[in-house]
TrEMBL record:
The chain crosses the membrane at residues 34-61, 73-93, 99-117, 164-183, 189-215, 227-245. Its main location: membrane. One of its GO terms (cellular component) is plasma membrane. Pfam families: TauE. It is a multi-pass membrane protein. It is found in: Cell membrane. PANTHER family: MEMBRANE TRANSPORTER PROTEIN YDHB-RELATED, TRANSMEMBRANE PROTEIN YFCA. This is Probable membrane transporter protein.
Length: 246
């Protein structure tokens, strides 16, 4: 178990709480968790610890929203995400941390601008997340999740472009991220990112994830669709700016 101050534990507990909220109500809110974990723990340790908490949040989201997933959308995304992951591996072989963050931030801002532009050019109810969009967003999502665990904002924009109702949005995202995050675990163990100390730390923080998840779930039941979409966009922009200037 890492030797941390009381303030550090408070920050980690709050971060874990926000992981739960992000998985059950406000996709993109876990940007706060990424920032705080990186501030409190060494970079590699923070990545491994946060990955396991994200998986706990994924499991909770699946339990709550498992019946709302759009499986045809997930099937369309699968090949593109695979291509993106391979490209991410190649990029990591030649880029340093600074370039990784900046490239992903620029991609996110372009994705947000493109998504909002497409939504304005189409009717209010017409989805803009078809097959071509699935390849574009899916490859970018695979790329960003491989290089910096930052695939959430990209895929959030795809689900937003598809104009899913809030429950379908969260259910489809839950299955997507649960599968992707579990696939990362063996690689993280092999790289020494996940260790016995990581498991002990996360055991202490798991209750905060569960509390955040149920708080988010109750919030979701009272949130209008338009408010949900606006909050998602704002949090995604914040995440992109954090990666760009951190």
């Amino acid at each position: 178990m890492p030797d941390l101050t009381a303030l550090a534990w408070v920050l980690l507990a709050f971060s874990a709480f926000m992981v739960g909220v992000s998985k059950t109500a406000l996709p993109g809110a876990n940007t706060i968790s990424i920032a705080l974990f990186a501030a409190v723990l060494p970079a590699r340790a923070s990545t491994g610890a946060l990955l396991l908490l994200l998986i706990v949040g994924d499991m909770l989201a699946l339990w709550l929203y498992r019946r709302h997933a759009d499986w045809p959308a997930l099937v369309r995304l699968a090949p593109a995400v695979g291509v993106g992951i391979v490209l991410g591996v190649l990029f990591l072989a030649v880029a340093d941390d600074t370039w990784v963050r900046r490239v992903i931030a620029v991609i996110l801002l372009l994705v947000i601008a493109f998504t909002l532009w497409r939504r304005r050019r189409t009717s209010a109810d017409a989805p803009t997340g078809g097959r071509i969009a699935a390849w574009g967003y899916g490859s970018l999502g695979g790329f960003t999740t491989m290089v910096a665990n930052a695939g959430g904002p990209v895929m959030t924009m795809y689900f937003l472009a598809s104009r899913f109702p809030a429950a379908a949005f969260l259910g489809t995202a839950a299955w997507f991220f649960a599968i992707v995050n579990v696939v990362k675990v063996p690689f993280s163990i092999g790289l020494g990112i996940i260790t016995p100390a990581t498991l002990l730390l996360d055991l202490v923080l798991v209750p905060a994830v569960l509390v955040g998840g149920f708080v988010g779930w109750n919030l979701m039941k009272r949130m209008p669709q338009r408010v949900f979409e606006r909050i998602v966009i704002v949090l995604t922009v914040v995440g992109a700016l954090y990666l760009l200037f951190a």
